[in-house]
From TrEMBL:
Domain of life: Eukaryota
Pfam families in the cross-refs: BTB, RCC1, WD40_RLD
Keywords for the protein's UniProt record, in alphabetical order: Repeat
Gene3D superfamilies listed in its UniProt record: Potassium Channel Kv1.1, Chain A, Regulator of chromosome condensation 1/beta-lactamase-inhibitor protein II
Domain BTB: 377-416
Stretches forming RCC repeats: 49-100, 102-154, 155-207, 208-258, 259-309
Alphabetical list of InterPro entries matching this protein: BTB/POZ_dom, RCC1-like_dom, RCC1/BLIP-II, Reg_chr_condens, Signaling_Regulatory_Domain, SKP1/BTB/POZ_sf
Name of the featured protein: RCC1 and BTB domain-containing protein 1
Organism the protein comes from: Portunus trituberculatus (Swimming crab)
Length: 416
């Protein structure tokens, strides 16, 4: 996959792209002639451990100290040389980032305490949330519309921010200003994965059980009803050992250790992949015809689902640039990221892109180097006294005229 498939990266200089290590594209759903329904901001981590931001900068979500938009990458100084490992974003937007050492930072929109800094003051620069974590090391993060989750190395889930539907899991609907451990019904067991819908939260336990809490109006918690939950509730209808869970705007996907895919929640665009548009408030197994599935993807910003099978085929379904795809559709993509770059509305990343291997394909890079190369060229054109070297095979592939030209009956075939 070429990084240029993401519009926000299309103007970056090649030398900067070559330095990129990790990238996250985000932004609230702005649908207008001027802005468009695309990812409007990006956070970039380079190979030399500097962190940059670029884009619209709504609510100061670039973390550069002001609210000025920028088409050129600007450094987020407090995060440079911190070894940022993961990034998550909300719809405000607010942004979370954690480091290899387990530190957690937040910035951007904070109208609902989603930054976890104890206030509702907007964050123009990264705030060290770890101050409120009592020396806990963060290993995974997730964000909904205006709430945040963090998973620690001990397998504890911490939540904070907007809580109008119980998405913080505190047993109330009061907003949570600082990180609070989600305890009810989870006991002392370890959590291995977390995910956020717009206003719901999900967790996978170390024994493969799944729990959900928050808004449940579309059945996105998978409990067999449409009742909101202020505390975690177990999704009892799931079968098998679940190893990964992802959330769309108001639907949920779960992947088992045997490669089975389960879906539930809102289905107005076919995002469950059931072949129809009926909501499901209990998990249903989908995409069985695809065989073993090894990875899944969705984003709380959109109604799109995607999956990768064990033979590396990529499928997608749901809301695809205005179209409703109600069953898995095979693509020619090589990565789940391409689904979200080209078909999601808005075009945001479902998780940060590991840029290694995504800048230029080896074939494209080789062809670029070979262009007008005197050592490898086997045909030369003279244009205005300038000699341009090329390759017969490439020209034949690219153009019908040259395909005919380089045949035995053309005298040019034997000329230099």
């Amino acid at each position: 996959m070429e990084l240029e498939k993401w519009p926000i990266f299309s103007l970056l200089k090649p030398e900067f792209v070559e330095k990129m290590k990790l990238a996250c594209v985000f932004g609230e759903m702005r649908v207008s002639v001027l802005v468009g329904n695309i990812g409007n901001e990006a956070i970039i981590v380079t190979k030399d451990d500097d962190v940059y931001a670029m884009g619209f900068n709504g609510a100061g979500c670039l973390g550069v100290g002001d609210q000025n938009s920028t088409m050129e990458p600007r450094k987020i100084e407090p995060l440079c040389q911190k070894k940022v490992k993961g990034i998550a974003y909300g719809s405000g937007p607010h942004v979370l980032a954690y480091t290899e050492s387990g530190e957690l930072y937040s910035w951007g929109h904070n109208g609902y305490c989603q930054l976890g800094n104890g206030s509702t003051n907007q964050g123009l620069t990264p705030y060290l949330v770890t101050t409120h974590l009592h020396n806990k090391r963060v290993t995974r993060i997730a964000a909904g519309s205006h709430h945040s989750l963090a998973l620690t190395e001990e397998g504890e889930v911490l939540a904070w921010g907007q809580n109008n539907y119980g998405q913080v899991g505190s047993g109330t609907t009061t907003n949570q200003p600082t990180p609070r451990r989600v305890i009810a019904n989870l006991g002392g067991r370890q959590v291995v994965d977390i995910a956020c819908g717009q206003t719901s939260s999900m967790a996978v336990m170390d024994n493969g059980e799944v729990y959900g809490w928050g808004l449940n109006s579309s059945g996105q918690l998978g409990l067999g009803n449409n009742v909101n939950q202020q505390n975690p509730s177990r999704v009892t209808a799931l079968q098998g050992v679940i190893t990964k869970i992802v959330c769309g705007y108001s639907h949920t996907l779960a992947l088992s250790d045997e490669g089975s895919l389960w879906a539930w929640g809102a289905n107005s665009y076919g995002q469950l992949g059931t072949g129809n548009k009926a909501n499901q408030c209990v998990p249903v197994r989908v995409a069985q015809e695809l065989g073993r599935i090894v990875d899944i993807a969705s984003s709380h910003c959109c109604h799109l689902s995607a999956a990768m099978t064990q033979n590396s085929k990529i499928y997608f379904w749901g809301h695809c640039k205005g179209q409703s795809v109600v069953a898995p559709m095979e693509t020619g993509f090589s990565s789940l990221h391409e689904v979200f770059a080209l078909w999601a509305s808005p075009s945001v990343t479902y998780e940060p892109i590991n840029v290694t291997g995504f800048t230029r394909s080896s074939l494209a890079q080789a062809m670029s180097v070979a262009l007008d190369d005197e050592e490898t060229a086997d045909v030369v054109f003279v244009v205005d006294d300038r000699r341009i070297r090329a390759h017969r095979a490439v020209l034949k592939i690219r153009c019908q005229y040259f395909r005919s030209m380089f045949q035995e009956h053309w005298k040019e075939n034997n000329l230099e």
